[in-house]
What we know:
Blueprint: H1 5-16, H2 37-44, H3 48-56, H4 64-73, H5 78-91, H6 109-118, E1 123-127, E2 132-135, H7 137-143, H8 160-166, H9 170-173, H10 177-188, H11 197-209, H12 212-220, E3 228-235, E4 239-249, E5 256-263, H13 266-276, H14 287-292, H15 312-320, E6 324-325, E7 332-333
Helix pairs in contact: 2-3, 2-4, 8-10, 10-12
Amino acid sequence: MSDNELGVLLRSRREALDPAVVGLPAGPRRRTPGLRRSEVAALAGVSVEYVIRLEQGRDRRPSPQVLAALADALRLTPAERRHLLILTKAAEGAFRCRGAAEAARTVRAGARALLERLSPSPVVLLNRLGEILAHTPAYESLAGPTGLLDGDGAVDPPSLPRFVFTDPRARTVFPDWEHVADEQVAALKQGPFRADGAMAALADELTVTAGEPFTRRVATLPGLPLVHGVLRLVHPVVGELRLAYETLELPADDDQRLVVHLPADAAATAALDHLHGRRPAHCVPSPRRQRQAIDGSMCTFGAAPHPAGRSPDSAAAASDSPIVAATRGRGSTAPEA
Length: 337
């Protein structure tokens, strides 16, 4: 497992940069993708040997001036520049004060109120370890039947990285599993990673339980997860859904983030309405989506089932209000903060 995160970032950005973007010809003689080290060195005004030392981890404390020159040469985005700075600070030990801190599992009243306001959308609250701390009822309907919220019992909350890397159901739930796995590792690495004691413990665990699919990503991927995109998820009742997601970071003291899921097409809208019991959904999926459903039951839906003696409207209203806390197992009611 790589402990040279600065080198991983510099190398991955160098290899991803199109030479034409910096005014260099692609040419037929290029045997590797992206820029050569010599080209990065020339653009940044440093020696090739220094670029090699940085990528190999033999020098982990470049000056701010050199960092700025490298960031300019590699055309880093503002988010990538911030991550570059975090990695150099971690190498200096500036993040060690956080290393002994446990991952936050307490949900503030304000964060819970925000979840309530975001309902009835499927929304989940995660800490820096990817543990599921709380979620809306719509997220329960979406993720619960897939096994994602099963967790490890009463001690640890459900964990998105553990599910993705160690639960065999994950590759069925996520058709784009390779990409989902990439994003999970990138999210874990966006901070000081192994300088964080709780994160190092999780990384050690997944190194043993998940093996090469996890360790290869740790060694090669920078900590730059996407904050929005489209996720494909296969639900055991409604089949494949396309969900747009947006990530909302809470204040630094919380060390938590909200992920809001929205339907990416009309079929997903109808399916989510059906799962949440808002109204009977009548959508006509494409034959491909029907084939991809786990049990072939994609659409059309009849009226969603409701508890005896309750109307669909009353069931939906009742499910919109409570926020579900995941810290003590699936489906428990959130304690007051």
